[in-house]
Amino acid sequence: MEPVNLTVARLTVRGLLGRRRGLLLLGVPALLLVLAVIIRVAVGQDESTTVEVLGTLALGTLVPLLGLIAGTGAIGPEIDDGSIIYLLAKPQPRWKIITTKLLVAFGCTVVFGAIPTYLAGVVLFGNFESVAVAYGVAALVAGAAYSAIFLLLGVVTRHAVVVGLLYSLVWESIVGNFVTGAKTLSVQQWALAVGRRIADPGVITSAVHLPTAVPLLVVVTLAASALAAARLSRLTLAGEQ
Fold it and tell me: CB neighbours (10 Å) of residue 128?
């Protein structure tokens, strides 16, 4: 059995790239690249500046925001306007709907998050010390986890964008960065642990060790996806939750 439904994937891509959501998906990484060019011209090739920009702006802001736009946008609008009923009426497992939408959302974070992060790293610091690759891979794994988390929010609440913004701004950006104990439960710190393993020693720091970060990334991504599928399976064709 195919794990994805191509028709669902096509409709999800069309929904994500249409109108304001598509402009946001294009505009946010474009802003990062423009800022990278400006900073490179103003500051020059500087390791600490590159790490600060990629860690704070790209991994700390860009990737969670893109995960929020893609994850919630992959299914939330269909639930809100009731059009999900037509999708649920089709003879297909509902886990396949979640799998398909998760892959589309993840693909968006790769195209609009991980690749621009890598390119911004190249603009800022070239290929030295594997910094650009490290942050690109960190954005990749973080994008997978954020996509699953925000897709789950899109299924369980009609206020997924608000809840997701609070999670991104309060937990990931503030608590996860500045509260020592909470860093262990931050997707950003898990991704930084992966990036630290790729970059030259001492360039990237993380509050979480790699043997802890990788299992947590996998567990959270799989658990959020499974919960989203379970929640979707309880939606009725009458649109009642």
Answer: 15
